[in-house]
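TODO from last week: model histidine kinase.
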Amino acid sequence: MTSVVQRLRPALPDFREAPAAFLRTHAERLGDVTRWRVGREVLAVLVLLGLDVFPGWLAGDWELSGWVLAAVGAGYVALYLSRLLFPALALLAGTWVVFSAEHGGIALVIMLSYAAGYRIAPWQRALITAVVALALHMLAWDVSSPGLSGPFGFWVMLTVYGMVVALPFLVGRYAAQRNALVAALQEREERVVRERRMVSRQVRLRERNRIAQDMHDSLGHRLSLISVHAGALALDGDLGDRQREAVQVLRTAALTAMEELRGVIGVLRRDEEPEEDQARRTTVGGPDNRTVDAIDELVDGARRAGVRVSLVRGGQAVPLPAKVSHAAYRIAQEGLTNANKHAPGASVQVTVKYEPDALVVEVRNNPPRAKLPKGAGFGLVGLGERVRLAGGMLHVGELPTGGFRIAAVLPYEDTAAAGDEPSDDEPLDGEPAGPAKPTGIRKWAGVGSILLAGIVVIVVVGGYTWLGTQPVTKVVSDELYDSVSVGQAESEVLARLPGGAEPPLGDIRSDSAPEPSGARCEYRVADRQTYSSRATRIVRFCFADGKLVEKNTHLQGM
């Protein structure tokens, strides 16, 4: 029992820090004011005045002068704006002011109820505010509606409270809970994304270092051996000029490959992500020589290696993005490599043509002299990915004459497809791809408020439905009223008056004239009613000394 009491007890603020915290919080809110919020407040004030103040004045229900009416309107506006600082007190004051007056209006109470439900964060404080508002509403109801008594009057009072105070209060609380949930989820998702990027970055850097170490230990060692053996072979005096030139080409190719390998390893071992320009350097700090302009050197190197290759250039040169220029160089390099590997001795033609809207790079070779087995094709797969990331299209296939052709169309602008680098947003292995499913409190946040609001609506509708189905027999028709005359015996009149259930109108004796002295009166509802009169027609029969001494009708205000 003690734990339940502790949970129901609202968290009391530190009164020494409360004023400073209050001022600091509302100063921050004042700094976040936008034109939209100011316009919303102005519109709400106009709606409040239009629904609660001016209708009663125009209808003549309020006998107020212009200055008094202006004071009433200013008071309503001040009470509405006070919800920004003191939502609970504004709701309690508005409940008493509106329901204790004869023509208070309910738009103000609806707005204050929604604001209180939205702004009061602790549920204990919200519950206390709602209970106190109900108590004030009951006191004000007795003051402003004395005619509605009994079960029906109590039910009407609860209905007004439920629809005007409780329902907007619960809707506002639900909106606040959902907004807080959305903000918490957004903050959590941002934190998860940051953590995921950090982990992904660490994993990728670790993998890059491992790849760099493997390349250095295996490929670097073998290229060094090729360079050393080629250098030693070049010193052999038995070699002819042609053989010596071939050995020199082999040694130059090995040295160039080692330089490129060192550049790639340097990029992989950097702690930061490689930029486009960094990734295109062959040596640390050296210039980029793998561009479309370097295709000439590539073709010259192939010629020195004994490949029968020709280069055809066409069109006016256009400045190219680094990614596009590098892709063009790789296309020519891969085409020459494949031709030398799969069609040795065949003639090769490299074409670089600047079209009006794109760069075309093509490498084609004649049929090989001998049929050689096909390779795995990993080079063409990587080449296709490189062209796609540059925003171009690649075509690879055999020619009708038996040769082979590699052609690509590359854009002049940097229109690279998305995904050229592994995204930090991509989930790691074993990590769920989407946001976590809501569980526990997050899944049920705000459901309690909506559930209570639904119960309020169901109870109100069900209660009025039940009242509407109850039979009403204490009704006097015009024929019965006209047939009864003053002076008839009490027993005779009472025998003709209908008995049974009364209409659920509360105290039907209200708004009637004083009863005759010493008389006992019976009240009934008239059968014929005119709704334009905005009142209920009540019939009264008064008896004294065993006779009917008075019969009349009066209107009970609605």
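Done. The longest helix spans residues 150-234.
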